[in-house]
Design a protein that fits this description.
Elements lengths: L5 H11 L1 H11 L13 E3 L1 H10 L1 H5 L3 E11 L9 E10 L2 E6 L2 E5 L4 E5 L4 E5 L10 H9 L1 E8 L3 E8 L5 E9 L4 E8 L2 E2 L10 E2 L2 E11 L14 E4 L2 E4 L7 E4 L6
Parallel strand pairs: 7-17
Antiparallel strand pairs: 1-8, 2-3, 2-14, 3-4, 4-5, 5-6, 6-7, 8-9, 9-10, 10-11, 11-14, 12-13, 15-16
Helix pairs in contact: 3-5
C-alpha cells in the first residue's frame, strides 16, 4: 500500500485555504505606495497599515475590468528551494462578473448566478452572486491585526515588500506581499504554522510547516472580454425551473445552495 506523503496531506488543507491567497490579491492589487530611501526594514504600526488598506478600497473598486495570470507553488517548509506542487491559473473581472481557475476549481459569476466547479470531485455548486471580490473587507483586516505581532516594510529590487508576522497559534506564521514599483502586487508568500499529519511516519514527518507562493503576472486593465465570457451556459442549463449540468459537464452533480425566493 502506498501511503500519501505528509506534504500531500497538508497540501489538501492548503488548497482549502487558497481563497485567502487569492483574496489577498484583490485587497492589495490597487495599492500605490510611496518609496522611501534605503533597503532596511521599517516598522509600520497597525494603524498605519490599516490606514493604507482603507484608502485603497475605492481604487480597487474602480478597476472596471482586468485579467491576471496566477501561479501557485507549495513547498514542504519555510525554506525549501524546490516546490512540491505547482499549478497555474487566471482571474478575469468585468464589472460585477468574474471567472477564475486555480487548483482544479473554477468560479464563474455574473449578475444572475455564481457557479463553483470542482473538476476533481465533478460537481457544480450554485450560489447567489456576491460582491466579496469587489471590495476590501475592513472588518476581516481588523480581525487579522488583532493577532498580528508586527508589520514591516522595505524596498526590494523591483518594488516593496510588506511582511506581517502573526502571533503564535495563528493559522499563518507570517505573510509577505511584494509590490512592483507601479504599486501592483506581483507576489504573495504565506508561511503556515504547523499542520498535523494523519499518518504516523516518523517524528520528523508528523509535523510540517508549509510555505505557499502565489505569483501574479501579465496584469492587464480595461480588457474587452468575449460576450459569453461570464455566462453559466457552458456548465449548466435551466430545465423545469432547476439548473442541471450541461455540455462537457453533463455528468457533474449540481448542488443549488441558494435560499428559495419568497
Amino acid at each position: 500500500k502506498i501511503m500519501s506523503s505528509p506534504v500531500k496531506i497538508a497540501n489538501e488543507k492548503i488548497k482549502k485555504r487558497i481563497a485567502v491567497s487569492v483574496a489577498a490579491f484583490f485587497i492589495f492589487s490597487a495599492l500605490s505606495f510611496t518609496d522611501n530611501n534605503g533597503l532596511s526594514w521599517q516598522t509600520l504600526s497597525k494603524q498605519e497599515f490599516s490606514s493604507i488598506f482603507k484608502k485603497q478600497e475605492k481604487l480597487n473598486k474602480d478597476i472596471g475590468s482586468y485579467s491576471v495570470n496566477v501561479k501557485h507553488a507549495s513547498y514542504e517548509n519555510h525554506t525549501a528551494a524546490a516546490p512540491h506542487e505547482q499549478s497555474e491559473g487566471y482571474f478575469h473581472k468585468s464589472g460585477s462578473s468574474y471567472r477564475s481557475s486555480m487548483l482544479g476549481m473554477m468560479i464563474i459569476q455574473n449578475s444572475k448566478i455564481k457557479l463553483v466547479i470542482d473538476t476533481g470531485g465533478k460537481h457544480i455548486m450554485i450560489a447567489d452572486p456576491d460582491k466579496a471580490f469587489e471590495y476590501m473587507d475592513s472588518d476581516k483586516l481588523e480581525q487579522s491585526l488583532l493577532v498580528c505581532d508586527n508589520i514591516k516594510s522595505r524596498i526590494s529590487d523591483n518594488g516593496r515588500i510588506y511582511r506581517i508576522v502573526y502571533q503564535a497559534g495563528s493559522p499563518f506564521a507570517a505573510a509577505e506581499y511584494t509590490t512592483a514599483k507601479s504599486g501592483m502586487i506581483n507576489k504573495i508568500v504565506l508561511f503556515y504554522n504547523q499542520f498535523e499529519t494523519q499518518e504516523k511516519w516518523s517524528e520528523l514527518s508528523q509535523k510540517i510547516k508549509p510555505r505557499v507562493e502565489i505569483t501574479y503576472t501579465d496584469f492587464k486593465k480595461n480588457v474587452k472580454f468575449e460576450k459569453d465570457a461570464f455566462s453559466e451556459s457552458k456548465y449548466t442549463t435551466l430545465r423545469d425551473g432547476k439548473y442541471v449540468a450541461a455540455g462537457d459537464y453533463k455528468n457533474y452533480k449540481v448542488f443549488d445552495t441558494r435560499f428559495p425566493k419568497q
